[in-house]
Amino acid sequence: MQRVSLGGLTVSAEGLGCMGMSSVYGAADWDESIATIRRALDLGVTLIDTAAAYGTGHNEVLVGRAIAGRREEVQLATKFGMDFTTARGKVVIRNDPDAIKASADASLLRLGTDYIDLFYLHRVDPEVPLEDSIGALAELVQEGKVRHLGLSEVTGDQLRAAHRIHPIAAVQSEYSLWTRDPETVVAEAARELGVGLVAYSPLGRGFLTGTVDPAQLAPSDGRRRLARFAQEAAAANQAIADEVRRIAESKGVTAGQVAIAWVAARSEKLGIPVVPIPGTKRVSWIEQNAAALQVQLTAEDIGDLDDLADQVVGARY
Q1: Fewest CB atoms less than 10 Å from the CB: which of 5, 59, 206, 291?
Q2: pLDDT of 116-157, one tens digit each?
Q3: 107 close to 100: Cβ distance less than 8 angstroms
């Protein structure tokens, strides 16, 4: 696996998103999830991404167990500040300094480690000055509890403001063939500042793999609430998945591998490191995903794939 630098933090060119092992995408198996993370490390996928909000702490505990004895191999990323426990569909964001420091200590305990490689502000809290939040994070760096700072789903102006207080290594945003927001929202600022982009949901929450039937999703699957997975929208969006599959078949690879390869290839176009972190909870899928960076896309392939975002039916949320 190739390595890239995110603002001074060297990571694998592809990471593993662990959210689905604990929440959102229906049931998961603890033992299979542990095996998936360990297999990722065997394959050189060492950027492991979690968050306090995933399964209300469950995911951090799981990740901590999976990397036990192999901590030195891992670039461990987690996030703070989002609370889903108040009511279904309602999110409380809290980024005041006291909450940040308490969250860091709780994450360290659940993860079973004494430092976090990349600590993300999960969402900006409009009620707390960004200076206060980043100032508290800078103190965690000084204390050695955190090594690098990240922001999730921010604008270019927010990134610049935060970076003036303390260097930011990475911005995490949803980015895929059918979600291109970071290109206009934050990429320019990231390029100016030398900040990397960590792309979550590079598989379009599974839709781009062509293996997900929205009508068959479990009642607990969070995708049932997303506009692009609604019946009419999903039917229209099938043309996007079909085009990805066509290109994949011409190369003898899978649609998911093409989708991941396209995201990784955007590093050159955007002028910043772009690290996809496809999520999975099965060993077979991590093996397939890890091989995606070997897929070679031609200029014609990329041109065809670039145009797909214009065909999307349904808002992101």
Answers
A1: 5
A2: 999 999 999 999 999 999 999 999 999 999 999 999 999 999
A3: no
Active site residue 115: no
**Is residue 173 assigned to a domain?**
yes
CATH number at residue 171: 3.20.20.100
Neighbours of 176 (CB within 10 A): 23
> Choosing from 54, 120, 175, 200, which is the catalytic residue?
54
How far is residue 17's CA from residue 157's CA, in Å, rounded to a whole number?
26
pTM greater than 0.85 (yes/no): yes
Name residues whose C-beta falls within 8 Å of residue 290's C-beta, 6 or more positions apart in sequence: 1, 14, 40, 43, 44, 45
Helix 30-42 crosses helix 58-67 at what angle (to 10 degrees)?
A: 50
How many structural domains is the chain composed of?
1
Looking at residue 279, its amino acid is: G
Token pair for 197: 């982009």
Residue 159 inside a domain? The answer is: yes
CA distance 309 to 114: 42
Is 240 among the domain residues? no
Q: pLDDT per residue over 252-274, tens digit each?
A: 999 999 999 999 999 999 999 99
Structural domain that includes position 80:
3-205+257-295
Nearest CA among 53, 79, 55, 77 for reference residue 67? 77
